[in-house]
Amino acid sequence: MVLFGSIVNAVGIIVGTIIGLLLRKIPDQMKQTVMIAIGLSVVVLGIDMALKSDNFFIVIVSLVVGTIVGEWLRIEDYLHRIGNALELKIGKSQSGNIAQGFVTATLIFVVGAMAIVGALDSGLRQDHSVLLTKSMIDGFTSIVLASTLGIGVLFSALPVFLYQGGIALFANVIHQFLSDSLLNLLIAELTATGGVLILAIGINMLGIKQIKVANLLPSILVVTIIVLFQYHY
């Protein structure tokens, strides 16, 4: 089943969020310290991923072009509108800042090497081990995020499922057209580009500077196009 890993990942986020909501009485100081610890970990992970590139110039071009597209489309504003709409339906007073929780969790869970590589493994080889591991990590992270940011974290399960499931289905269809060398090159540059986005998320979590990370997401598509073009021409 191609979508098995993606389904388990989404369920893990939902379960983690529910547990986190039940633990909201955790002292604020402890929550803040834990969030800082997660933020530092995310920064280190982002740097490690970014260094996986074989040609960082491709990553830079992809980020620049992708950011221009993202700013034009105002992706971050769109995600916040979705979160705010959910907030109006549920009520901010009883659920926390849904928009912030939704956007933060979505970006943390979607942007990363494990999401891309795991989904590709599910689609290409029917191997769900990476996504199952990611499910455990995301489940634990969602506990902490939900205890701090509220129920908005739960709604991130849907875009995570759609994103990873879409990659898995796409990979399952086109794997017969891609050579192993092209696939390895594509994964390396996608990982590096995703690493920069992960680093930006960590900076946001640490409160150093607020970056509209969602507006950088088109760079993932741009790097794919560049790698495919470079490989064939």
Automatic annotation (TrEMBL):
Protein name in UniProt: DUF554 domain-containing protein
Organism domain of life: Bacteria
InterPro entries: DUF554
Pfam name, any one: DUF554
Keyword Cell inner membrane part of the UniProt annotation: no
Keywords: Membrane, Transmembrane, Transmembrane helix
Transmembrane helix recorded as keyword: yes
TM spans (from-to): 6-23, 35-51, 57-75, 96-120, 140-162, 182-207, 213-231
